[in-house]
Specification:
By secondary structure, the chain is an all-alpha fold. It has a domain of about 30 residues. It is flat.
């Protein structure tokens, strides 16, 4: 049986690095530079195309805010939407 204290949702707060990243996004701070090489871009596009040819299923996923912030930041650096990055990561994980 869950007690009230254990069943309440706890909101995690961003740490100092995450707060600086969020502030940089919100204020239009230093632009992010993509580290995406042409070969890596082709590989990601190939994975995305392969994933899109399959029948798609909707899922709902809860992740820590900090992880999502870092994932979105990484996707921006790679020059791709964060959902495509999630799909590529899942595809790579299950294909290995």
């Amino acid at each position: 049986m869950l007690t009230r204290a254990s069943s309440e949702k706890r909101e995690t707060r961003p740490d100092v690095w995450e707060q600086a990243l969020i502030q940089s996004f919100e204020t239009g701070g230093a632009p992010l530079k993509s580290r995406l090489t042409p070969a890596r871009k082709r590989a990601i596009e190939s994975m995305a195309r392969a994933a899109m040819t399959d029948e798609r299923a909707k899922i709902s996923l809860r992740v820590p805010r900090g992880d999502l912030t870092r994932l979105k930041s990484r996707a921006l650096q790679e020059g791709i939407p964060y959902q495509t990055l999630i799909n590529a990561l899942i595809h790579r994980y299950v294909s290995d």
